[in-house]
Amino acid sequence: MQYEIRVDGLMSETLIGSFPELEHVMISGQTVLYGPLVDEAHLYGLLARFQSLGLQVVELRRLPE
User: Fold this and answer.
1) Each residue of 19-65: pLDDT tens digit?
2) Largest Cα span, the chain
3) DSSP reduced 3-state for 8
4) CB-based contacts of 21: which residues, under 8 Å, 6+ apart?
5) CA nearest neighbour of 15 among 39, 33, 28
6) What is the DSSP secondary structure assignment for residue 17, as one 8-state letter?
7) Facing residues of 9 across strands?
């Protein structure tokens, strides 16, 4: 399943490097990361990683297949 995760602010290349499994774009003061997630455990692991890095997730959505 493909997901899109929007983070408040523009992430540095160092922070983006913490999510090698995702692609990214910068849009309107936000960083949008997207890509396939294997399962629910992968999703929760990503969310924990965002939290541990002090990043604020403002939107999470599953993309149509």
Assistant:
1) 999 999 999 999 999 999 999 999 999 999 999 999 999 999 999 98
2) 30
3) strand
4) 35, 36
5) 33
6) T
7) 30
pTM of the full structure:
0.91
Distances (CA, A) of 65 to 16, 18, 19, 38: 25, 26, 22, 14
Query: What's residue 11's pLDDT?
Result: 97
Q: In what order do the strands lie in the sheet with 30-36?
A: 23-27, 30-36, 2-8, 57-62
The residues near 50 (Cβ < 8 Å, ≥ 6 apart) are 5, 7, 56, 57
CA atoms within 13 A on the CB side of 30: 15
Burial bucket for residue 46 (CB in 10 Å: 0-12, 13-18, 19+): buried
